[in-house]
């Protein structure tokens, strides 16, 4: 069974939107986990700073790396989303910035 261009078009757009929503939720979760997480997830400073484990073994390091890579992925997928919807965006931008002419003003 062959898919038409419109069928594959809406399907790929739906996948991109779902990816953006999922990655956005992961981004929010990791950001909040790093902000409000347990103190042992945050890097220690001050007199106890010598007792910290190597950064590769801490949960904070994993959250920071995940947060970074998800953020970079969102940038790429958002660019794909804009490219997929370029015709609609072009139409909307024309309506916003080039208002329709309403006849001549000569008397």
UniProtKB/TrEMBL annotation:
A GO CC annotation given for this chain: membrane
Keyword Membrane: yes
Keyword Transmembrane appears in the UniProt entry: yes
Domain of life: Archaea
Key words of the record: Membrane, Transmembrane, Transmembrane helix
GO BP terms, alphabetized: respiratory electron transport chain
InterPro entries per record: Di-haem_cyt_TM
Residue ranges of the TM segments: 61-83
Coiled coil: none
Protein name: DUF4405 domain-containing protein
Species of the source: Pyrobaculum oguniense (strain DSM 13380 / JCM 10595 / TE7)
């Amino acid at each position: 069974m062959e898919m038409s261009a419109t069928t594959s078009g809406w399907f790929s757009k739906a996948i991109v939107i779902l990816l953006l929503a999922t990655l956005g939720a992961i981004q929010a979760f990791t950001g909040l986990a790093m902000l409000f997480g347990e103190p042992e997830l945050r890097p220690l400073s001050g007199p106890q700073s010598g007792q910290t484990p190597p950064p590769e073994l801490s949960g904070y390091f994993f959250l920071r790396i995940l947060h970074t890579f998800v953020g970079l992925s969102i940038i790429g997928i958002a660019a794909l989303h804009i490219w997929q919807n370029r015709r609609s965006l072009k139409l909307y931008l024309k309506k916003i910035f080039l208002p329709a002419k309403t006849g001549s003003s000569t008397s």
